[in-house]
Amino acid sequence: MRYLPLVFIPVLALADGPKDNVADDVRPIPPVGVEVPAADAEALKKGLSELRAAIDAAVKAQAKNPKLADLLPDVEVFYKAVDWALKYKEIHKVTEVKSAQEALAEGKLRAEQLKNGQSPWTTQKGLVVRGYRSKIDGSVQPYGMVIPESYSGAPTRLDVWCHGRGETLSELGFIDQRRKQTGNVAPANAMVIHPYGRYCCANKFAGEIDLLEAMAHAKKFYTIDEDRVIMRGFSMGGAAAWQFGVNYTDKWCAVSPGAGFAETPEFLKVFQTEDVSKIPAYEKTLWHWYNATDSAVNLFNAPTIAYSGEIDKQKQAADIMEKYLKEEGIDMIHIIGPQTAHKLHPDSLIEIERRLAEISAVGRDRNPSEIYFTTWFLRYHQMHWITVNGLTKSWECARVHAKITGAKEVTVDTENVTALSIDMQPGQCPFSVREVPTVKIDGKALTVNKPLSDRSWTVHLRKQNGQWAQVETALEAGKLSKHHGLSGPIDDAFMDSFLYVKPTGTALNEKAGAWCKAEMERASFEWRRQFRGDAPAKADKDITDADIAANNLILWGDPQSNSVLAKVIAKLPIQWSKDKLVVNGKTYDAATHAPVLVYPNPLNPSRYVVINSSFTYREYDYLNNARQVAKLPDWAVVDLTQPKTTRAPGGIPDAGFFDDAWQWSKAK
Predict the structure, then answer these.
(1) Nearest to 191 by CA among 220, 233, 159
(2) Which InterPro entries match (predicted)?
């Protein structure tokens, strides 16, 4: 596009660089805050006590209110923001004391309103702080809404805006922004949702689910036009927009990332000047999870507009996506701010808004006639009316090209796929309800069931003895397989409800027991710091059937110290006694080695058990968001004779992935 006069719009960011490539000298994230004057601290503690009492009174008064569960987090986020900022020394400048006082006042006002059966903030226009309770860990998480004056309850466009990197962006700081700042985008007659994203993880893992949960909560109060939801962000938020863009493409009317990063290895070379050549092969494999470049073809399914400043080092993100899209036959629109560094150029923003308004006027195509979809594991398994249910081999590229090719014909071409479903929702199937359709899949024509009277159409297909056939169900009953929600790796278990199971018995070996205890304590500490929730935990002897049904169980300890682990160890693919640990056919000294792994729970195969691990990236990786990717696969052995580091829980003599039947992978 033509170059336009230069004006800067500030964006929240914190520069990284080669200074953060030293694993032995890692600065704390979040950093320690300032010392709060004693009088102010006492006043805030008094205000917290008053707010807690007001919340308790509201809960008591509205105990029978069916909306209480959805309204209470709107009040509790203010308590949490001030409580955590004070308790964990996360007030980073003295001016935030005033922000804390304002948050307490807003919380008290809402608590009193809720006590009286009122919730006027749910119909408020302009800037609104909202909150929801997460299914992952039960924590309350904030998000912001910008509601236009024109909103009348009719279906309305929604723009998602993911924020930039902010190492001091506590809940208090985020809520203060969302109470006072419209933000970088404010499209006419559109709502904007600002996810907190679980702090500073580039909206990955629990931060990824944060957006989905925040949107689900928002839909209970606002009429969002599902066909006009636009994914946007800048800097770290631009990285989020790229990954949401390729991994959830069919949710968006358009995708518009700015700056950020689109993948890990090349970005770290360019932006951090970091040598990634010695990274283990399994870790490189795990890059596929969030490398948008590896799933670039998915953007065939949504209009995409990228932005970069001309002299911004993070222009690398759009440049590399442009390259990968070109390889897929797609020419990417890349709007460039002239002579602009890490900023949004205002005239470029005008051009972006013009294009997005035109795309929004058309809206999302809910039922496209042609779909391209690629995935690397089944955390991401769906694109419009195609759902992939099984892979030949996870972590190798799987592709589907599906197209309506006739009045009653669909043609599907696949790579590395063993099972899929065609699932068109009511009103979406274009075929006659009287005629029998044909599905041509990988060259084989199958006569399948007709659409139903509501114009819905579901067909399950699976390879049997190497040949495609129609089957009754998406998954084979009683057969252990990797599928959505049960695909590994370890970090996948922390994207749904989980429960730490603490050992109460005596460890098999003192050194290993001490390591497990220290890792469990670290896991709780880091979950709070990095994902902004208290990790749910119970003693092994207190675990109930309801706990097993509802949660991924994170089992700390060993088969002697943890009674739940003792119940399942015989059905896990390892052997573990006082003397030896056998993993993947190799024997280790159990006194100096420990396993970490994820596996379907033998007590509830629809959920995971995880042994001795939380999320797998560590302190070194907090320094740059492109490093915040899974660091261990489905299983690993930890050598306790080697010290823990900011990158690993000890030495890793072996690690790998189970195959797609949850068995040991055969050596190549």
Answers:
(1) 159
(2) AB_hydrolase_fold, Peptidase_S9_cat, Plant_Biomass_Hydrol_Est
What pLDDT is stored for residue 667 in this prediction?
Answer: 55
- What pLDDT was estimated at residue 459? 98
Contacts of 188 (CB under 8 A, 6+ apart): 148, 357
The CATH homologous superfamily to which domain 1-6+124-365 belongs is Alpha/Beta hydrolase fold, catalytic domain (3.40.50.1820)
Compute the chain's Rg from CA coordinates.
25
Among 391, 359, 354, which residue's Cα sits nearest to residue 374?
391
| Residue ranges covered by each domain of the chain | 1-6+124-365, 31-119, 382-471, 490-656
Residue 393 φ then ψ, to 5°:
-150, 115
Q: Are 235 and 259 in contact (CB under 8 A)?
A: yes
Answer for the pair 611, 604: CB distance below 8 angstroms, yes or no: no
Distances (CA, A) of 87 to 39, 41, 42, 109, 199: 15, 10, 12, 23, 17
Q: Which position has the token pair 């951090």? A: 272
Number of residues that this document lists for the chain: 668
Alpha-carbon span 226 to 427, nearest angstrom: 16
List, as one string, the DSSP characters of 640-664: TTSPP-SS-SSEEEEEE-B-TTSSB
Tell me which DSSP letter residue 590 carries: T
What burial class does residue 510 get, using C-beta atoms within 10 Å of its C-beta: 0-12 exposed, 13-18 middle, 19+ buried? exposed
501 DSSP assignment: E
Q: Parallel, antiparallel, or unpaired for β 593-601 and 586-589? A: unpaired
H helices present in 309-465, as ranges:
316-327, 346-362
Say what the pLDDT of residue 666 is: 75
| Overall average pLDDT of the 506-528 stretch | 98
Tokens of 124: 């408020």
Distance CA 129, CA 648 (A): 38
pLDDT in tens, 48-97: 999 999 999 999 999 999 999 999 999 999 999 999 999 999 999 999 99
Of the candidates 73, 91, 88, the residue with the CA atom closest to the CA atom of residue 129: 73
Does the predicted model carry a pTM greater than 0.90? yes
Neighbours of 284 (CB within 10 A): 12
| Ramachandran region, residue 197 (left: φ > 0; alpha: ψ -120 to 50; beta: rest) | left
- 84 burial type by CB count under 10 A (0-12 exposed, 13-18 middle, 19+ buried): middle
Q: Identify the bridge partners of residue 470 per DSSP, sorted by sequence position.
A: 461
Q: Residue for token digits 């304590």? A: 521
Residues sharing a CB contact under 8 Å with residue 549, sequence separation 6 or more, in sequence order: 604, 607
Q: Would you say 660 and 393 are in contact if contact means Cβ atoms under 8 Å apart? A: yes
Assess contact for 260 and 239: CB atoms under 8 A.
yes
Decide which of 495 and 12 is more confident: 495
**Residue 659 tokens, joined:** 């195959």
The residue type found at 93 is: K
**Average pLDDT taken over every residue of the chain:** 96
Inter-residue contact 527 to 499 (CB < 8 Å): no
CA distance 18 to 329: 36
Per residue in 548-576, pLDDT tens?
999 999 999 999 999 999 999 999 999 99
Check if the beta carbon of residue 297 is closer than 8 Å to that of residue 326: no
Tokens representing residue 48 in the block: 């917290």
Cα–Cα distance measured from residue 527 to residue 596, given in angstroms and rounded to the nearest whole number:
18
Whole-number Å distance between alpha carbons of 503 and 541:
8
- For 140-150, how does the pLDDT look when each residue is reduced to its tens digit (9 = 90+)? 999 999 999 99
Provide the sign of the torsion angle of the four alpha carbons 532, 171, 168, 198, taken in this order: positive
